[in-house]
# Entry
Amino acid sequence: MHERTLVILKPDCIQRGITGEILSRFEKKGLKFIAMKMIMISKEKAEYHYAEHKDKPFFNELVDFIISSPCVVLVLEAENAIRIARKLAGATKVEEAAPGTIRGDYVIHIASNVVHTSDSPESAEREINNFFSAEELIVYKRDLYSWIG
Ligand code: CMP
# Structure
């Protein structure tokens, strides 16, 4: 099985009406979509998702933002899916996000940065399990991608 990563299209993405454009970047790259849904994230799931930031001064702001409006959560699969998705997302620091990346092209403030992508295999597993049951992760073949499935 190839590596899996969790991507969240955050409330600002849906509010701005750029959901399709952002999904399209991951899709066109060739990452395999194995699960996707639009949800209102609960406070409990948001706090668990962002647990590593719980001592940061912006923790409450972070949680309040992600639960403020619907998000699209998805699981992508590929060899090196985690690093590939992070490259497509671009740097967290706005001024360092390269043009051509999602944040480089769409983000002007760190608190409203359109996407989240898992940063390690351990985070990916924890984050995927926070939002998806095993049955929701769909196993299927893509014939046109015979070399990666
Ligand atoms: P994300 O990839 O979702 O993971 C942690 C998030 O914290 C990050 O994206 C930013 O949206 C957010 N973040 C990081 N630094 C700050 C900050 N100084 N102020 C507000 N939000 C921040």
